[in-house]
């Protein structure tokens, strides 16, 4: 690190401390909860650390999330309360001068000894940054040890598209204890301003090339090599394009109007769904039967942390939706909201939310805002 960088960093840190000291406690609390969805703000704990790394509670909350006011780097962060002991331990070590790899080694040693508990897989971190040179509103799902190929995820950074307001989630640090899913939150008054994109005429593409249409829900880097299947009237599988790796997409289901992509290992679930539809079941009946089938083992269990991609082409519901499966997880453990974002999503402003918590079908709904396939109503006040 050169002298200029050190000087600038010192000046920024001093500026941040001066700004914090100029704020009242009420102002710091109000600012600290800004990254959260609305339903979690009022009852969130707000805390900070003193110079010795000791926790200072600015407001004691009653729900399952807590927030730390903007730090010297410009980040405002919120976490599940289930990880509080880890963060307190880390702050105490940092106050003793540990940092970087040395701090990580000490944290791992404490975890191995049982002094602190591992981070629950699927835990969410909420981050706000208020300048335009990086992603402003970013939610991060921690997936320690997981691999992108196993979870049907992309590894291609969406930083640059996110700065234009249409980035999609991607995985970082796969296979390590720090593996995580980056979820840029587009379309809100806190997000990077969205650069308008021309919508894709998906219906025309379906008529012209059903295979290309089936691949639309995927991030671009996962489309090459994905297998494409369709189903006959009796629910039998027919392969339209052989795949060469993990992904499979099914052509549009005319009963639900959904186009879905998923890990190939979930093909048995799609086959089962097609058979149920062929028997004349309604979409609601099929959905209920799938929940029961997962619970009783009639179809293979959905791997924890795997992603499903869904496209819908009408304006009456979410168009581009990614679903992160978290079987049996609860919102309290992971720090998530369960308040539906269906209506905001129709205006292109929806935030992720958890559904069916505590069941084998528990999942995080991730509306993908701001893309050429998304619901498009981006005229919001900033």
How would you describe the overall organization of this protein?
The chain has 382 residues and is an alpha+beta fold. It has two domains: 160 residues, no CATH class; 166 residues, no CATH class. It contains 13 helices and 16 strands. The N terminus is likely disordered.
- How many E-type strands? 16
Q: Can you list the strand order of the major beta sheet?
A: 2-1-3-4-5-6-8-7
- Helical content stands at 25-40%
In sequence order, what are the helices and strands, one letter per element?
A: HHHEEEEHHEEHHEEHHEEEEHHEEHHEE
Number of separate structural domains = 2
Task: Please outline what is shown here.
This protein has helices at 3-22, 25-32, 38-41, 84-95, 100-113, 148-151, 159-163, 202-208, 210-214, 267-278, 283-296, 331-334, 342-346; strands at 45-49, 55-59, 65-68, 75-80, 124-129, 137-142, 170-172, 180-184, 227-231, 237-241, 247-253, 258-263, 307-311, 320-325, 353-355, 363-367. The chain is an alpha+beta fold and 382 residues long. It has 2 domains: 25-184, no CATH class; 202-367, no CATH class.
Summarize the SSE layout with pairings:
Elements: H1 3-22, H2 25-32, H3 38-41, E1 45-49, E2 55-59, E3 65-68, E4 75-80, H4 84-95, H5 100-113, E5 124-129, E6 137-142, H6 148-151, H7 159-163, E7 170-172, E8 180-184, H8 202-208, H9 210-214, E9 227-231, E10 237-241, E11 247-253, E12 258-263, H10 267-278, H11 283-296, E13 307-311, E14 320-325, H12 331-334, H13 342-346, E15 353-355, E16 363-367
Parallel strand pairs: 1-3, 9-11
Antiparallel strand pairs: 1-2, 3-4, 4-5, 5-6, 6-8, 7-8, 9-10, 11-12, 12-13, 13-14, 14-16, 15-16
Helix pairs in contact: 10-11
């Amino acid at each position: 690190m050169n002298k200029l960088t050190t000087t600038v960093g010192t000046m920024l840190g001093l500026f941040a401390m001066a700004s914090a000291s100029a704020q009242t406690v009420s102002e710091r609390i109000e600012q600290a909860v800004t990254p959260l969805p609305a339903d979690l703000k009022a009852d969130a704990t707000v805390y900070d650390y003193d110079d010795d790394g000791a926790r200072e509670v600015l407001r004691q909350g009653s729900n399952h999330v807590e927030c730390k006011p903007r730090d010297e780097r410009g980040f405002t962060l919120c976490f599940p309360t289930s990880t509080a002991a880890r963060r307190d331990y880390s702050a105490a070590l940092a106050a003793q001068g540990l940092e970087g790899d040395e701090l990580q080694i000490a944290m791992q040693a404490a975890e191995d000894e049982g002094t602190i508990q591992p981070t629950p897989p699927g835990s969410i971190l909420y981050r706000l940054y208020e300048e335009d040179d990086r992603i402003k509103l970013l939610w991060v799902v921690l997936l320690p040890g997981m691999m992108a190929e196993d979870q049907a995820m992309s590894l291609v950074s969406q930083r640059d598209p996110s700065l234009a307001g249409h980035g999609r989630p991607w995985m970082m640090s796969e296979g390590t204890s720090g593996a995580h899913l980056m979820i840029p939150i587009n379309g809100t008054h806190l997000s990077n301003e969205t650069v308008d994109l021309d919508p894709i005429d998906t219906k025309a593409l379906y008529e012209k090339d059903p295979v290309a249409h089936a691949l639309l829900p995927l991030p671009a880097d996962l489309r090459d090599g994905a297998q494409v299947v369709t189903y006959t009237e009796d629910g039998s599988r027919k392969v339209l394009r052989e795949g060469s790796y993990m992904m499979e997409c099914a052509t549009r289901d005319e009963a639900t109007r959904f186009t879905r992509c998923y890990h190939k290992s979930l093909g048995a679930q799609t086959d089962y769904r097609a058979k149920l539809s062929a028997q004349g079941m309604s979409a609601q009946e099929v959905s209920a039967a799938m929940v029961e089938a997962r619970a009783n083992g009639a179809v293979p269990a959905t791997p924890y942390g795997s992603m499903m991609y869904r496209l819908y082409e009408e304006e009456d519901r979410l168009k581009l939706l990614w679903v992160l499966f978290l079987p049996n997880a609860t919102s309290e453990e992971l720090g998530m909201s369960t308040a539906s974002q269906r209506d905001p999503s129709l205006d292109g402003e929806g935030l992720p939310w958890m559904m069916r918590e505590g069941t084998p079908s528990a999942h995080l709904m991730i509306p993908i805002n701001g893309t050429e396939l998304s619901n498009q109503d981006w005229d919001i006040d900033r």
